[in-house]
Amino acid sequence: MSVLSYHPMSGIFYQLLSLNWKRSQEKKSFIDKSLLHINELELKAIYFAVKAFPSLMEGKNVKVESDNSTAACSINAMGGTKSPSCNDITNLIWSWCITKNIWLTATHITVFYYSDDGSCNC
């Protein structure tokens, strides 16, 4: 799960709960998620979330919050050397952001899940 928050804008908050993206132009380029590693899926989620609000983010610093530490590190380092596929997706994200004058900063967040009986996975 990846979360984008926009600062210093007025509290706009968007959370991607699923990679089952509905926009037709995005469907054409989305690779079957069953073939991708979780780190690639998280980076794809960030890519689609950033592309969802180009006019709101143009010329802004955008904080990306992700529960995947590899995705957060890849964004902050503008790529990596361990996974060519993650590096390719990160380069795609940054290439698009550069054209829109968007600067990304990523942080890792801990996510707690609560079961139906109210217990926490803490």
3D structure, described in words:
It is built from five helices and four strands; from the N terminus they run ββαααβααβ. The protein has helices at residues 24-29, 38-52, 54-57, 69-77, 84-99; strands at residues 2-6, 13-16, 61-66, 103-108. Residues 5-28 have low confidence and may be disordered. The chain is 41% helix and 17% strand. The chain has one domain (2-108). The protein has 122 residues and is of the alpha+beta class. A hairpin with a 6-residue loop joins strand 1 (2-6) and strand 2 (13-16). Helix 2 (38-52) packs parallel to helix 5 (84-99).
For this entry, give a set of tags.
122 residues; alpha+beta; 4-stranded mixed sheet; 4 strands; 17% strand; globular
Globally, the shape reads globular
Number of domains: 1
Give the helix/strand class.
alpha+beta
Order of helices and strands: EEHHHEHHE
Rounded to an integer in angstroms, the radius of gyration calculated over CA atoms is 15 Å
Average the pLDDT over all residues and give the rounded result. 75
The oligomeric state of the chains shown is single chain
Helix coverage percent: 40-55%
Give the tally of β-strands: 4
Low-confidence stretches: 5-28
Beta-strand proportion: 15-25%
Report the end-to-end length measured between terminal Cα atoms.
Answer: 17 Å
Spatial strand arrangement across the major sheet = 2-1-3-4
**Quick one: biggest sheet?**
4 strands, mixed
Number of helices: 5
